[in-house]
Amino acid sequence: MKLVERHVITKSHYLWSEIDHKAFVSKNLFNLANYHYRQYFFENKKKLNFHELYHKVSKSDDYRNLPTKVSKQIIRRLDSAWSSYFAALREWQKQPNKFLGKPKIPKYKHKAKGRNILPYPDESIYKKALKKGIC
Length: 135
Prior knowledge:
single chain
């Protein structure tokens, strides 16, 4: 069984601006990875390999501005969305009556207003941050 903690932070919280900035960086990383997926899809009509994508985005500033495990989780979630798209497309080709329309590829997040989740696995939270009360 997986246990999940969800922390919703209001605008009045003292860490709001820092977390909002990290969510914005997370969105930038999501859009960068999605750009590489989309370009590869339009050229080859197949899904980009996760490891190839990792090597394309791991040198970017947005990837490096977040903890490595958080950045990888963002890319993994996008990879899962693309895998779901291809599974839905195969199912749609077999039985289109199950769907309201043809499945669409994952979209970009809004450039200015968009934010993305910050998935922090247990391993990325360390005692120094806990002592400061950040986590």
